[in-house]
Design a protein that fits this description.
With 425 residues, this protein is α/β, with parallel strands linked by helices. It is 36% helix and 12% strand. The strands form four sheets. It has a seven-stranded mixed β-sheet with strand order 1-9-8-5-4-2-3, with helices on both faces. Strands 7-6-10 form a three-stranded antiparallel β-sheet, with no helix packed on it. Strands 11-13 form a two-stranded antiparallel ribbon. It binds pyridoxal-5'-phosphate. Residues 83-85, 109-110, 112-113, 155, 181, 183-184, 205, 207, 218, 425 line the site of pyridoxal-5'-phosphate.
Length: 425
């Protein structure tokens, strides 16, 4: 069982925050942007070629990206869409969810996971996380299954795979769909099997901070050909298959509208980025794994919680590097830690405050943070450090130095009010 660094190994620190002069680790003009994408010449050239081709919308580049992504993940059916949110929404529609159906997911996720369930007309039900892995706890899921439950929606948090054996077993026993939120998990594997291929649907994100970037973009892997076909139609207004070709060099073609669909298609412009990003996915993974390892090694001397090491029979995607800042133990509150890192010109993120912290869910679903104590605690302590493949050794060293100085002071008390660059999503 993975464990986080025990608080006992780090005594509480009394910080000399108000003493000494605050000197930022980096200058403002070298602000380290959290989650900065690594864009290279091949995708720039492909985008330019697409712009010049006159075909910007859904077309041959999207088809190529789908084919190459399917090959990378070893999937039968792949449909590119405009976002992971769209991928999740359409997966639930293709699964045939109806009003009143329940979908169990984690409280420690981006709001899009839960919103997609609501947009599909179903009712989201939360099951708390295992705080060591930050992933949904299968034992908590089991407690939440009712006769109305239709699906389990696990999120491979930060790129670490969920306990898929236990979740798939529960789904089989209760005849539930499994819809995997793989927004962080493009390279993730669990016992040799790729994330996104355990359930009926695997949903991926190519948002700007993700491991493969198309600006905005998403992908659905579907096990069933009929499901994939339905998603394809729903993603483009509900128009009959291949309607995107209606203005191609084959000449104008009539189409039929067979559903009230959505405008969720990916464009060739986006796929032009994705094709080349995907070619560097392993190289970028390797670089992030090195930075992740360096952080693990060099940050363990500080009184903060570090991510659990990956299990031996899994592959972590190293999408996020979340640390826990417990005010008592670290001698600095989480939010003050964020402000001080920002003052050191290091951009950080919060992934995530737990879903029940947000007023909308409190007001409409009656959720309270205390009802999901592990997610609440993690959500109130977590800070994600930058982990982009573009980070140099100097950048990674600056992040470590900024953590050290933030913990040991001097702090930013009395310093001017700062702009904050805190990323969610
Ligand atoms: C866990 C999780 N699920 C879903 C999404 C939604 O992805 P997208 O922005 O592509 O819609 C995100 C995006 O940040 C995410 O982190």
């Amino acid at each position: 069982m993975p464990t986080r660094t025990s608080p006992k190994t780090h005594p509480r620190v009394t910080r000399p925050h108000t003493k000494g002069r605050f000197t930022p680790v980096r200058t403002k003009d070298r602000f380290l942007v959290f989650g900065a994408p690594s864009i290279a010449e091949p995708e720039i050239a492909e985008v330019v070629a697409t712009l010049k081709s006159g075909w910007l919308g859904t077309g041959p580049k999207v088809a190529q990206f789908e084919k190459e992504f399917a090959a990378y993940r070893g999937a039968q059916h792949c449909v590119a869409v405009s976002s992971c949110t769209a991928a999740l929404h359409l997966s639930m529609l293709a699964a045939g969810l109806e009003a009143g159906d329940e979908v169990i997911t984690t409280p420690l996720t981006f709001c899009a996971t839960v919103n997609a369930i609501i947009h599909a007309g179903a009712r989201p039900v939360l099951a708390d996380i295992d705080p060591a892995t930050m992933n949904i706890d299968p034992a908590e899921v089991a407690k939440k299954i009712t006769p109305r439950t239709r699906a389990i929606l696990p999120v491979h948090f930060g790129g670490r795979p969920c306990e898929m054996d236990a979740l798939v077993d529960l789904a089989r026993r209760h005849d539930l769909h499994v819809i995997e939120d793989c927004a962080h998990a493009i390279e993730t594997q669990y016992k040799g099997k790729n994330a996104g291929t355990f359930g009926d649907f695997g949903c991926f994100s190519f948002y700007v901070t993700k491991n493969v970037v198309t600006g905005e973009g998403g992908m659905v892997l579907a096990q069933d050909e009929q499901h994939a076909a339905r998603i394809k139609v729903l993603a483009l207004h509900g128009m009959s298959r291949d309607a995107w070709k209606r203005y191609s060099d084959e000449g104008y073609k009539h189409y039929d509208v067979v559903n009230a669909g959505f405008k969720y298609n990916m464009m060739d412009l986006q796929a032009s980025l994705g094709i080349h990003q995907l070619r560097r996915v392993e190289e970028n993974w390797k670089r992030r794994s090195e930075i992740w390892g360096r952080f693990q090694e060099e940050l363990k001397q500080y009184p903060i919680g570090l991510p659990a090491e990956p299990n031996a029979d899994t592959r972590h995607a190293y999408h996020l590097y979340p640390i826990l800042v417990d005010g008592e133990r670290a001698g600095i509150s989480r939010d003050r830690f964020i402000d001080t890192m920002t003052a050191h010109n290091i951009g950080v993120g919060v992934h995530y405050r737990s879903i029940p912290e947000h007023p909308y869910y409190q007001q409409t679903l009656g959720w309270k943070p205390e009802d999901f104590p592990s997610s609440m605690r993690v959500g109130r302590q977590t800070v994600s450090l930058p982990l982009s493949p573009g980070l140099t050794e100097q950048d990674a060293g600056d992040v470590i130095e900024a953590v050290k100085r933030t913990i040991e002071g001097p702090g930013i008390e009395g310093k001017m009010k700062m702009e904050t660059f805190v990323s969610e999503g």
